[in-house]
Write a structure and sequence with these properties.
9-stranded antiparallel sheet; 158 residues; Lipocalin; 41% strand; 9 strands; single chain; 15% helix; alpha+beta
């Protein structure tokens, strides 16, 4: 019976692999190692980075609630606070600069941060006090169902 090329018998030992497979593996593993090296050494913010780190300032509001403010290069990056406005309900507020709905302005040492939702607006106003690492300011909270709350003052340092 005549054999076709597709079913041609293999000559040599079954333990031997064709040289082409090893060449292909060497190329693929070499490329994977190169990509891994590029990713590890080129990623920003790695442990070898000497850039500035986020500094957290902590304090309290006039209502006794904890406040945390993340600062990077002297600029506010995030705020975390529980607010209890004079109208409306209590809420956690943690805006982060760069997120949708969050506005950040810094003019002549005054820091303004706003966040808007469909049913509320929150505003954060602060000024540096007593040098770097200290902020004092107020938080205003407005629900659509009521008027603007009384300002809630806060002080943080770190």
């Amino acid at each position: 019976m005549r054999q076709t090329v597709a079913f041609k018998r293999r000559t040599g030992s079954a333990d031997e692999r064709p040289v082409k497979v090893w060449k292909l593996r060497a190329i693929i593993y070499g490329l994977l190692a190169a990509v891994a090296a590029i990713v590890l050494f080129a990623r920003p913010g790695g442990s070898s980075s000497d850039g500035p780190s986020l500094r957290t300032l902590a304090g309290v509001t006039a209502q006794g609630e904890h406040v945390k403010i993340g600062m990077l290069n002297g600029h506010v990056r995030y705020v975390w606070v529980v607010v209890k406005p004079s109208c409306g309900r209590s809420a956690w507020w943690h805006p982060a600069v760069g997120l949708q709905g969050v506005e950040y302005h810094e003019i002549d040492g005054r820091i303004d941060l706003y966040e808007r939702w469909t049913d509320a607006v929150a505003a954060f106003h602060a000024r540096a006090s007593g040098g770097p690492g200290k902020l004092q300011g107020t938080i205003h909270w407005t629900w659509r169902s009521c008027h603007r709350s009384e300002p809630i003052s806060f002080s943080v340092s770190g």
